[in-house]
Specification:
alpha/beta, two-stranded antiparallel ribbon
Amino acid sequence: MTTLVCLDRDGTINKDEDYFLGSSLNWKQQVKILEGVVDGIKLLNNISDLEIFIITNQSGVALKGSKFELLNEKRMHEVNEYIINLLERQGAKIRGYFSCPYVDNKYLEKAKKIGREINPDYIKDKHPDLKPNIGMIIKAAETIEKKIEECNIYNIGDRYTDVEMGLKAGGTGILVPGKKTRELGDEARVKEIQEIYKQRVYIAKDFLDAATYITNKLLSLS
């Protein structure tokens, strides 16, 4: 069976300092690959019949104002492609990516409280691609001519919604705790659902540990 590994981007692959990566002219200088990511992806690349995709919400595209003028859908794609190429130059290969530029009304309310405006064209409640909905995982599977039911799915990210997304897709959710995980209390929430889905939720020490967990799990099945 094909294994499909889906990776969150900001805070999981690259450092996330609330840049809204792509919103500034010097965005390439802001791309810092986190420790263990290259080695972890290389480890996964050694497994036969395994494909890796970046799956990322990019709410910055929906934001209005002079600070966000440069961050449009075209720039969103440029950033994803740049990160994939940067990793590939270090020997870590990713098959492709899917990004969701939409937000919901819950996000809109939070944005209003801190004085941010949202482009109404990008407000889409229950959009199938907006995490934790699984539209982007379905698209990744379709890219390799599979249905999600035909794949072992692992979803890695730094947020509760990444773990939830993996479970919704019928797979495993792996949390790699980072700055935002702790700030938003997501690790505690993941520990709660880990009690329910003991075999399908894993809290990793770092990205390499997440990749090692997947590798060991697949070896135990072979």
